[in-house]
Each structure stands twice: as structure tokens, then as C-alpha cells.
Amino acid sequence: MPEFNFITISDLPSIESFYLSSQASTVCEPERRDPSHEPAWLDSTPPINKKVPPIIPLPLFQPQCSLHFPPRSPGPNRHFLLGDHGRGVRRRAIQRLPPRADPPWMAGRASSVERVKERATGLDKFVLREARGSSAEVYLYGGQVTSWKNNSGEQQLFLSKKASFKPPKAIRGGIQICFPQLGNHGVVEQHGFARNRLWSVDESPPLPDTTSDCHIDLILKQSEEDMKTWPHSYELRLQVALSPRGDLILTSRIKNKNADGKPFQFTFAYHTYFSVSDISEVRVEGLDTLDYHDNLQSKIRCTEQGDAVVFESEVDRIYLSAPPKIVTIDHEKKRTFVLRKKELPDVVVWNPWDRKAKAMPDFGAEEYKCMLCVGAARIEKPITLRPGEEWQGRQEISPVPSSYSSGLLDPEMIQQMQRI
Ligand SMILES: O=P(O)(O)OC[C@H]1O[C@@H](O)[C@H](O)[C@@H](O)[C@@H]1O
Questions:
Q1: Atom from ligand 1 closest to the CA of residue 191
Q2: What are the transmembrane regions (predicted)?
């Protein structure tokens, strides 16, 4: 889901201040010429995202300007009203905005989803190619995303050179689906069984929540073997989608299918291995002042003291009740991952550092330097589902230039988003 819609309005009337409204609601009232002002809101229906400031200074008196709007505000081909503030809508103008045109190089390009049998591993995977250049690879084994490249073809996820693709070992890297438990708190194996089971293509997926035309739907159901340790019938659906902007969107739905009337409880995580240039140059923002369980200290509860999490040694934590947006900034690569999450309040942060790296057979001794796990999770308050009930969780990751940091947007990012 894009955070902003952009429109270009031509022939702005030369008025000192103005407001814009759409068919549905008033959008915002830009303050006169001062870009540092927060927009005032002319009415409260609906309160769109008040946190969004007018990032692009509104160049009044110029024949054309670009404005940004929060989600749900008008998109292309809708009417806008332009009026001069304070004197009603005297210079009322209605503009029908042209749909945003695709760049010329996109002509004739379409998104595709291809099923491929990997020769080296013998495993089936799906290769998603979004028309604007981003791509992803998703294995039926583990329902695991192992590759995600942005619109420029740069890999965003870490996959160990020593990763094993042989069941029952989970693939070391990408995004592991941890269900029905994270860690070793529970009756099943570490991080649950979903990451090392063979999933199927979901032949009757629910309607997608995204506007993406590039996605794959997978499903995992109970096996007789798993019923011995976790005696429940369930459907775990996973949709992996690429947005036109190159975002990677994972949506999971879990349904209790027990016929015996029994509820079940589970925890869940998208154990996400990001590729980073140099771990000592990376910071994670959005977790300041939060409590976390420190797995390195018998899971004791601590409170984050820094304004960002930085890495100088092994880190193995579960941050609790984190905000919906977490930002991982890779200074050296000048790249930032913005992670947005729904129904997944907690965040896993893990880097094994040197000693543990050496002890893992499927991980290179030096690879801890170029990876970091930051993933949305639901751990502290497990989910309980009664038969017939369904839970849905979501993680969206957007790669953006590094000048972006939490809560702020910069013109470079705006320009890049406008080009898409
Ligand atoms: O080796 P695994 O099972 O994939 O787990 C990797 C790491 O995953 C983290 O989430 C755990 O907190 C760590 O303790 C663990 O080492």
C-alpha cells in the first residue's frame, strides 16, 4: 500500500493561500509559503493522516506544483476543488487529473510469476518478476522467500552461502515463517515447523489486500506427523506480493479448522534476514524506550536505553509492543528498510556475531557482518483461535534511500517515489 499519492496540478491560480478538497473530503490547507508548517486541517472528515506534513514546499504563484497526500486521499482521475481560503470557493476550479503514466521503458512489460525447479536443490520455487524491475523468489519448502531484489536489481535479503536446502533443516536466510511458535518456548521444534515443511500452492486464496498484480499464494495444513506434537487442524495461508514500488508484502492468515471444538494458541514471526553492508554501520530505529526480552540473559526483561539499536556484539532480543513502523538504516550502502507491520506487535532483532556464527554449520564464519534479522512477530501475547476463527498478520518492507529516517521524509525520497 503506497503511503502517499502524488498529483501534479497545473495552472494554479495566483492566490495567496488556497485549500484543496476532493470529492470525498477536504485534504489540507497548506500554510502560506512556509514549508515547515504542519498543514492545518479544514475539517475532521475524515482525519486523514495528520502526521504527514507538506513535504514539498508548496510553490504558490508557480504554474505547476506537486502535492502529496496520505493514503485514501484522491488518486488520479478525480476531481479537486481549488479555492482561495477565507473567501469561500470563489475561484473554484475542478481538475480532472490524468492517470499517472508509466515510464516509456515499461511499455510492453508485464509482471510474471513462474514456477521453477531448482536444479541444485531439486526444490520448487516461484520467481516473481514485477513489471518495474523488482523480483522475489519463494520456495514451497518453508513457504520461504529467499531472494528479494529492488527495482534496480539489488539483493535486499541475506541468504547464507552455506544454507542447506535439505529437509529437515530450515533455509538459513531470506524470510522464515515461524509458526506455531518462535524460539523454543513450546511443544514443537525451535521456531516451529512451518519453516521446514513443504507448502502447497493455495488454489482458493482470499482476495488480495494489495493492488499488486505480482503475487503467489501458498498454504500449509497439518500433517499426521505434526498432529502427534501439535494436535490441531489449521490452514496457514501466505501471500507474497511485490508492489509496483518494489515493496515486499507478506500477508499470513491462520485459521483454526479443529473439528473437535478445541481452540489453539500460537506465536508467529517473519524471521527476516536483511542483507547489510557492514553490521557495525547499521542502526535500527523505532525501538527506543521499548521493553525487550534479552535471549542472551535468560530472556530477562530490559528497557532499550539508546535512541537506536546498534551492533557491536551478539544481539538476540524480542522487542515488545513496538510501533507499526521500524526502520533499519544501512549507512554504508545508503539504503534503508522501512518495515511496516499489522497485528504483529513485537520485533525480533538478531545478529549472532562471530562466536555463534562459527558454531552454526549452515552459516559462514564472517557472514554475521553482512546480515541482520529484524522481523515482525507476535510473541508476548500469543493468539488464541477458536474453531472457525482466523487471524491475519502482515509485514511490508520498502527499500528507500538512506537519507530517510523514522518520521521524516526527504526530497530525494519524494523524487524517487514520483519517478515510479
Ligand atoms: O538457528 P535458528 O533456529 O534458525 O535460530 C536462529 C536464531 O533465531 C533467533 O530468533 C533466536 O532468538 C536465536 O536464539 C537463534 O539462534
A1: 3
A2: none
